[in-house]
Design a protein that fits this description.
By secondary structure, the chain is mainly α. Helix 4 (66-90) packs across helix 5 and helix 7 runs antiparallel to helix 8 (159-172). It has helices at 3-29, 42-49, 60-63, 66-90, 97-123, 125-130, 133-154, 159-172, 180-197. It has a domain at 62-197.
Length: 206
Amino acid sequence: MLYFHWILLAAFLLCLLQLGVRVAKIFRAGAPKDYSAPIGDKKKAIGYSFTGAMSPKHKESAYLHLPTYAAGIFYHMGTFFGLLWLIILFTNLILPAIVIQISAIFLFVGAAAGLGILIKRIVAPKMRQLSNADDFISNLLVTGFQAFLGIALLMPQYVPQMMIYTAILFLYLPVGKLRHCAYFFAARLHLGYFFGHRGVWPVKHG
């Protein structure tokens, strides 16, 4: 491995360690004792928490703002896709040129979605009032990651700089709002358990 591989790997492991500690603290704290009688299926509710409950039909913050919701979907897909490509580049796997070109376009679309969300955060008065520096830094880092990775796919000479940039992203991730990538799973598990215990989830139709 070259120096930029080692920098990226070290940053990733440090990020993983810090996120692991945070998640361990959540589960070690445990759930409060629920004295109500269980009337639902908690396993089905937890599954629903990660699927149907995430539908825009069931989220007021989503169905009232569908364009932003759609941009968020593309933005997150671009991030996960970018992480997959990061592994491919790290392991020096060779893929056809057409795959690389299409992937770069997809990453640029994700970056554009992230930029659109950032612009809305700046120009929409309510969002701007609710925002802090971390909101802008986190968006810029992830949007930059997708854009930089797309450039590196088309111009491989920028792969070292892209990996060092991603190392900075990994170092920031556990200390900023981006750590919700770990808290998300703990929160959805808790919601599924809580509402499943009471028979509220999954939602029954008819």
